[in-house]
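note to self: the first set is below, dont mix up w the second
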Amino acid sequence: METRKGFPSLIVLIACLSALWINSARAQVLIQSDTHDLQNVFSQPLRESIDEYARMVLENALSSEQTELLPMSDEEQASPRLYLNLIRTADNEREYYWISPLFAFECGETVPCTPNAGNQLKEVAVSYIAIDKNSTSFQFAERVSEKISEYKNSEGFHLLANNVKSTLSVSFSEIELAYGLLSLVGQLDADASNLWVIADVVPLFSEKGERGKLKGIAADLVNSVLKEISSPQDILSAPWKRIAKEAMSKSNVLVFAVIRTEERDDVFHWITPVSRNLHGLFGINKPHFESFDDVPRTFRVGTLLEDYRYNVALENGFKVSAYDSWNELVEALFNNEIDTIFGSQGAIDFGCNPNEFKCETITLSSKYDISTAYLALSKKDTCVLVLEKLKLAAADVKMSDEFNERLSSWSDMVSQEYGIAHHTEHGVVHLWNPN
């Protein structure tokens, strides 16, 4: 990767893969501090202060996550790599997962500007906690983002940030703490009053109720987030194709629930996960295969029409049949027209009528992947601080007793009335059994 010039390069290299993080093993986080590139913005004592501040934000946010912060030498290499005080620019936008902002300050010849940074009078640079974007770092980055958003809602964070604000105020009289960052250029604008909120209709998550209003656990989450930022409004519904079109062409489009993919990173800012779904091959009395590649290509695979899994199955050499609905797929499975359904546990549960079939006999034969559906915000000309405002609000809602009681009641209803396999973690619905 090309080295950065003329802006901060306080580098933190992570000496464990994301798998260690997920399995809660003790992760060694190796820190290399290099703030000399900020000499045109901060004096040496102030650079030391922001260095320590950035380190403490990370350390405190991850205090319950089995991590150990250690110094490292310049020669050490590890993946994924995490950076503190990395300036977000148009040139490096696609290279990183932008976890959380730290500082905003004037940009110029030596410090590049951050697009859509929320200041109407002057351009500013925003420094971030960021993680290299690659195939091994996604889950790690997602969890770090969640933990830092949670921490930034805490009394401890505000105490820490206000102490640093007091130190910096001697040199920066306009300093403000807002949206989880310290702005050295005064007030920043994160106006969310013109959000356009639109959802894809999904049973139990966001479905039409009385008078056309959306109901369901995802709609409840979004309504709570909008209330948190003092911007309550009606949620519109539309087919996915229209949602995608609007998000690509307009700013401030708040949508849910959108499956996160690498291709969609150019279109959406990702606010918070709503649900996760395990995708794979499901059959009756079929052996379990550890890898998707191990499944015999003689298996007849059924998918939905115009579903991405149809092409995946074809590309993997299976004989594929497509059906109009999950109900038809389940019927085809029991009629021995196909050997497996390429779908998700949630789809199988929705499509199988227990009064007609022995639904419990359909089991996972091979896992393909896990997809995550998000509350997301259109990227086009949208202020990055509106994203932060929404992320902090979502984290606060998910930690609230009110939302968790609502989620628990919803979960009980889904189990009792629909028999859908699922569990919840950190305010996210996982559509499969935990065991």
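second set (the one i keep forgetting abt)
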Amino acid sequence: MYDYIKGILTKITAKYIVVEVGGVGFILQVANPYAYSGAMNQQVTVYTHQVIREDAHLLYGFRTEAEKSVFLSLISVSGIGPTTALAIIAVDDNDGLVRAIEQKNITYLTKFPKIGKKTAQQMVLDLEGKFVLSEQAEVPSLAVEESDNTALDEAMEAMEALGYRPAELKKIKKFFEGTTDTAENYIKSALKMLMK
């Protein structure tokens, strides 16, 4: 129903962002909410997909049309819902995902949260040869300086919202203790570590 929303970014949480358009705040579930940190109180364009369930009307947001395309391909696979698709997109390695599907690399695919062997095999079956990505433009960094470990705490909360287990996150958090970075960068680094 909605292709994109253009408005002022007014709120960032671990699970979603809020974009205000004409006095109405739209909640958008996104893969990495903290990727939008540098755009707080500024105008943003977020590509969207609406999911209507019996108990909720949800909007999912994406930084690019290519990211949205990947999401739509993923939710077309039996066993993959929107939350799992967002967790896969959050890794920000679309080329690696496509390569894993084309090479039938089940081991790589099962590293994503809530993706077991059967679902990974279904991904290969449904998406092999069909998963064509358009050239994804480089997204400018929206990183901002954050102090203490607030950014790390926010990153871990966002990853938990994506479905990663607390035991996994505890190890990751320990690895980053004593470092200073943005929540967005912590999430990107942690996801890359988990995918190895």
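remember for set 2: The radius of gyration is 16 Å.
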